[in-house]
Specification:
about 140 residues; about 35% helix; Rossmann fold; 7 strands; two-stranded antiparallel ribbon; 5 helices; 5-stranded parallel sheet; single chain
Length: about 140
């Protein structure tokens, strides 16, 4: 992780738009990949679901892939298994600079040191094995 605790708090406090890779829809409301984005939305963040297996979630149209992002997001929040992180890192680094996420956030239990190092080398801020929802609860009031 190439960011300090204080930087993480600032990132979360200032984030406006979060793309959620691996987000679930209302049919799986019991999953963290639905609950955390719902909580982030309730705290004022715009959520962009990214999952080719769903149509919409939280009232937002789901994208099939991060390459479909229409704008740069503050955080790409990742709910995927560690073994797919290297391929995802390739997708992220292939994005045009104008839409690259400012921060790649790997949720609790997700880490891949080699892929994280590659992302950091490419200039991304990376947070791994940490829950974005926990940080949001600390620094963002409910809207």
């Amino acid at each position: 992780m190439n960011v300090t605790e204080q930087e993480i708090l600032e990132i979360v406090k200032n984030a406006k738009t979060v793309a959620v890779e691996g987000m679930q829809d209302e049919s799986k409301m019991d999953r963290a990949a639905y609950q955390i984005p719902a909580m982030l939305q309730s705290r004022g963040m715009k959520i962009i679901p990214v999952n080719p297996k769903i149509q919409t979630s939280l009232g937002e149209k789901a994208l099939a892939s991060i390459k479909d992002l229409p704008v740069q997001v503050d955080i790409l929040d990742v709910f995927r298994r560690p073994e797919v992180i290297p391929a995802l890192a390739e997708e992220i680094t292939a994005l045009p600079k104008i839409i690259r996420p400012k921060v790649v956030w790997l949720q609790s239990g997700i880490s891949h040191p080699e892929a994280e190092a590659k992302l950091e080398k490419e200039g991304f801020k990376v947070v791994s094995d940490a829950c974005l929802g926990v940080y949001a609860a600390r620094v963002r009031p409910k809207g």
